[in-house]
Structures are given as C-alpha cells and as structure tokens.
Design a protein that fits this description.
alpha/beta; TIM Barrel; 9-stranded mixed β-sheet; 11 helices; 18% strand
C-alpha cells in the first residue's frame, strides 16, 4: 500500500488567524523531524494566496517581512528534503487585508468559482508561478481550499492552461453547505482514482484531469463527543498547536455531534486515532493500492504528532509513505 500523508499549509481563517510561528512553522518543523526519523516523505498543499499577500505587505510591516522570510526558508527546506509542495488555493485572500495588527478576512468569495473567468486565470497562474519559484519544481497537483472545488469548469480551464492535471480534493460521501461554503461528493465514484474533464465526480476515459481522492471514513457522533470531553480533561495533549480560530461554519459542529458523517481520513488532533482503522478498511478494498490522508499543521496536537510517529513506525516495513510526485511517476508514466 502506498500512503500519501498530506498537509494543507495555511493559517486559520477566523478571528484571530493565528501566528505563522504556531500555525505553520513550528508544527511543520515537528513534521519534518518525524519524516526524517522514518525516511518518509510528505506532501504539502501550500496556501499561495497567503504568500502573495505577505509579499504585498512585507515592506510596510516588519513582522510580515519576518514571517515571509521564515516561511520561504522552510518551504525551500521541505522541497530540498524531497517533500512535495503543491497548489492550495483559498481565493478569499484576494479580498482580504492586513490592518497593522491582524489579517482581516473577507470570505464573501470563498470558492474560485465565485470569481469571473479572467480572475480565475490570473489567480491560478500567479499562485502556481509563485510556488514553482520557491520549490524549483513543477507544480501539477491541486487541492481546493475548504474542498470547495465545485463547479469546476472555469477552474478546470485555468488548471489545464497551467499544467495542473492531478486533483486530490474529493472524498466519497462528503457533503456540507453553509452560505458560500459548499461541497457535495455524495455522488463521487467508488474508484481508487479516475480521469475526468469538466466535473471531478464524472469519470471520463479521455479526460485531461486525474482525481486521486482523499480516503473517506464514516465517523459516529460519539467520536466527536469523546473528542469534546478529552479536550477539556487534557487540553495540553489535545489542544491544537495553532493559536487561531477556524472560519465560522454554522451548523457544522451540530452535525458532527448528532449524526454519523463521512469525513476525510485526517491527522488533525484526535482524528489521528482513526489512522489504523482507515488503513485496515482501505486494505480490504481490492480496487485500491493507496491511501490519502489529510492534515493541517495548525490543527495538529501533541496527541496527533505522537500518533503519526507511531503509525509510520508500525507500518513502514509493509507500506510506502510517498509523495504525489512519486505516485505520478510510478502510476502514470507521464511525470518527469
């Protein structure tokens, strides 16, 4: 089994956003130590809108100049160590600003599809170029911010023009709708991966794009009640390392606490407890030979970092922990 451990490299989008040090730099540094210990490689989906905004304000605010330089240095170190840096787009950065003390977010246009076609083209091209200049490598994978990849047609045109042909956003059965925050993967294929053209949920044999979905998992409300209790009993172990707040998503917490939900297999916080279950269920599916796990440095905890370390140590003899670049080279024969 090939296991892709992936991390969305970003701040929080609530108030406050949290600091670059605690949300990104420090937890990513710990991930690098775990990777080096086990000779594993991870994939980081870099929120390039944040980098563009840092560059815009860094000459005016020394704090942001310091953040930018540290982040660029870490990203280059990640790339030099063999980790993947791939494209993660939260386009609401286009409408957000820094007031001298904190980031002020405007999430009225949260999805790429909320922008006109010419803006989508500009955003994708700029963000891809920004990341390639940092990593020194080709960027060819996308993960939509907040999983909000639908509708895809205009986004797809921009991705195709920029050589981004692999997507890893969908998780079968996932669904949420709250204002401008929307994704619906209930009709996604059961396949391990598939090609598509204009809709990531509709396979097309000759499609330009390939979807390598995140591994889904059915989770009971009891799991989240337990997480809720553990966070109060032992906050040092279970509190996120990041010091910000998530973007408000009305109804989401209630949904988790009252009904079974389909979630992406995650490394965030107590969710890391489900890693072994996710691997066991994936191995039982004869149609797949890979598992994709999502995480966020900002949402990692002491518990999840410990669980990740144990998980890799337990399974590294039998399974391979690889990047999208390694996966593409082995399974498509088209990456160089």
């Amino acid at each position: 089994m090939n296991i892709l451990l992936t991390f969305d490299y970003e701040l929080y989008f609530g108030s406050p956003s949290g600091s670059a040090e605690k949300c990104i730099l420090s937890p990513t540094g710990e991930l690098m130590q775990i990777a080096e210990k086990h000779d594993a490689r991870f994939s980081f989906f870099v929120d390039c809108g944040y980098l563009v905004k840092l560059r815009e304000y860094m000459n005016e605010y020394p704090t942001l100049d310091n953040d930018y330089r540290k982040i660029i240095a870490q990203l280059r170190q990640l790339s030099a160590s063999g980790h993947d840096l791939q494209l993660h787009i939260h386009p609401h950065w286009e409408d957000s600003s820094y007031n001298g003390k904190e980031w002020v977010f405007n999430t009225g246009r949260y999805k790429l599809s909320d922008f006109p076609a010419e803006s989508i083209d500009r955003i994708v091209a700029l963000y891809r170029k920004t990341l390639e200049e940092i990593s020194g490598r080709q960027v060819f994978v996308n993960r939509a911010g907040g999983w909000c990849i639908q509708p895809f047609m205009e986004t797809g045109r921009a991705m195709k023009d920029n050589g981004v042909w692999l997507d890893s956003t969908v998780f079968k059965g996932g669904y949420f709708f709250s204002g401008n925050y929307y994704y619906d993967f209930r009709n996604a294929p059961q396949d391990a991966c598939w090609r598509f053209s204009d809709d990531p949920l509709k396979p097309s044999e000759n499609g330009f794009f390939t979807e390598l979905p995140i591994t889904p998992l059915n989770v009971s409300p009891w799991f989240y009640w337990k997480l809720f209790l553990l966070g109060r009993i032992n906050p040092r172990l279970h509190k996120p390392i990041g010091d910000g707040n998530p973007m408000p998503a009305p109804g989401y917490r209630k949904k988790l606490l009252t009904s079974f939900t389909v979630q992406p297999l995650s490394l965030d916080g107590y969710n890391a407890r489900l890693l072994n279950r996710g691997l066991s269920e994936t191995k039982n599916k004869k149609s797949t030979n890979h598992m994709v796990v999502i995480g966020h440095p900002k949402a990692l905890s002491r518990f999840s970092l410990r669980a990740l370390d144990k998980f890799i140590d337990k399974h590294k003899q039998e399974h391979r922990f690889i990047t999208y670049s390694a996966w593409a080279e082995k399974y498509t024969g088209s990456f160089s």
